[in-house]
## 1
Amino acid sequence: MAAVADLPAIFLGAFLLALSGALMPGPLLTFVIADSAKRGAISGPLLILGHAILEFALVFGVIFGLGAFLKQHLVIGIVSLAGGCVLLWMGVSMVRTAGGLSLDMDVKSSVMKMNPVFMGFLGSISNPYWILWWATIGLGYLLSSLKAGYAGLLSFFIGHILADLIWYSVVAGAVSRSRTIMKQKHYQWAIRFCGVLLFLFGCWFLWTSYSYLN
């Protein structure tokens, strides 16, 4: 009975912890803003689906000992290097092709053509700080929730994903509503802005890789 009584506390703790992380800007937020300007409010849930699939796999990996592996400087450095390169490419591509984009669904940019579920997956795995969070804060809370058994683990995961889903759905909905007053040039400048943000995140992650690999 004690374990059952702990479940609401596990859920609430996971929700608040995840929400504090979701509110911080990162590649995933940038993807949500860029894609929802094109696709609408559905972009939020779709990107979080890709994010959730990756986190579901990672949770099981952490349970079976992946946490110690993720903490290694070499692993964080390699992820930072690969993620930084991907984000640099995506940022440059979005800035370069923004002038040819339109608010209809005739998308010519290779980045903006991506499936939003895949974008959610990519936006998470390219961020070394997401992996570092799971190897430290996430691991500690996950192990604590396991004291309540698999029900505790499920409460943790649902609370964690729900926080992401609510926040990014709110962002996507707000951006989507702005489409009714957004002009073509405003949309193109919004994509350029998102591209610059991704480029800056890429530079930051490359600098992170240098600090971890040296």
Note: The mean pLDDT is 81.
## 2
Amino acid sequence: MSVLDGLNPIVKQKALELLAACTTHGIEIQIIQGFRSIVEQNKLYEQGRSTTGNIVTNAKGGESYHNYGLAFDFVPLIHGVANWKDARNFFVVGEIAEKIGLVWGGRWKLRDLDHCQYTFGLTIADLKAGKMPNIQK
């Protein structure tokens, strides 16, 4: 099973485009998370609040684009090893992601450097109300 399984087909294609574009620029990345269930999201939300660890998200279950298959997380690799410490690589990948039409979390007030999403113009409220992306976009 691939980490890209569960993503909307267009979002999956965008993730593959990002992998290829980064390779073209001499950057290796790994997609580390795609679709996330409500249960998984709630566990992440509780981290640093009611369970041990650092706070890693402000989104409860149902409030993340991951929960709808419209988001994925990545990490740059250096010699095949995840490199979380060098933010410059996240910025380069983020700029590449934006060029292929993804929204990159590194531009947000509360930065999420490893996050990309493709929302089809839908808000979380739209998704919670049952609206689905038009996959023709």
Note: The chain has one domain: 9-128.
## 3
Amino acid sequence: MTDTKITLPESEIPTHFYNIQPDLPTPLLPPLHPGTKEPITPDLLAPIFPMGLIMQEASQERMIEIPDEVRDIYRLYRPSPVFRARALEEMLDTPARIYYKSEHVSPVGSHKLNTALMQAYMNKKEGVKRLATETGAGQWGSALACACKLMGLECMVYMVRVSYDQKPYRRIMMNTYGADVVASPSNLTEAGRIALAENPSSPGSLGLAISEAVEDAVKRDDTKYALGSVLNHVVLHQTIIGQEALKQMEKAGDYPDIIIGCHGGGSNFAGIAFPFLREKLSGARKDLRLIAVEPTSCPTLTKGPREYDFGDVAGNTPLLMMHTLGHKFIPPPVHAGGLRYHGSAPLVSHVLAAKLIEAEAYAQGEVFASAIKFAQCEGTVPAPESAHAIHSAIHHALKAREAGEKKVILFNLSGHGHFDLSAYDAYLTGKMDLMT
């Protein structure tokens, strides 16, 4: 196929999300109650989430229908295109064929809107008036702010302090959509006040911001909590990415040998990988490689043990079986803010433990070098998070050149970097810690 951009009509937006749980070789271990350490029941999650999302969290249905109201809003940007990175291939002088799924075309500039719309819809359907959440780099906060406005809900965002300071335009974007945004740790919650008492200049963490958002939600009858990654229902909603990509690769007449996504909490990686992993599990594509890429500063999958841990600093969330660096972990303030979470989605951790996927970690210096190569070849300035997938794709394309192999590589360009230019400036002016 000679096309550079591979598109699908709106009629081919998937009608269902793909749930990998029924296809797993062994069942997922259940979340545990933070107090009793017993498997948690749906009623115990009701103060935090709407029942519709709780049911999706534990569902064993392989395909879960996308409501028409959500699917109609998806038409604003879905199906997202797949691009053949011809200029990048030429610059690398590689026989590999490189493709990328371009989720940065959404109104908020990232894949996060896929689940934000679904979560806002499910909450609205059950009479919730307000959502509270956390955000790191601001992509998730922007997405939920947008989704809440489109669904007629209020939105409260606790933004990790270091990103709040580094990325003011993300905050402005959230405010533009009508959301309230505060730097975390804040004085609005007990978890925030404790953190500030211990360290008044705390850079914050996603785990701490989650503690604040959950506390906010449980103290108000009109509010529920929304999470942008990690949980099963979030991973579920993102599989719309991989389902579209399967059709687009078929249209291109190619099938990936390697699929790559950056990894923070796991939803964007799982979103592109799980529909393809289904084919590996069925035996149809036994040699398919699926690679999750994280920063060396927060090496959850590559260095963290797989064990039960809290999702937040305060220990208020259910215990999840996941790869974790410990819920008290405060990562260095690297520029890939969305990849600084201490844990990993239980589903991603599960398939890594089963050796169905792989994990890699890279320092931000080499990641930004690859991001600039990509921008200069393909035109899009990628988000620092997405740049990790780009770096891995370049690494494997160069390995293909050394081996003389015509590998097909597909990665997820999960977001643009238009609001991350201070990070690029730090790299270009030599102010970035390249080894972190």
Note: The chain is about 40% helix and 15% strand.
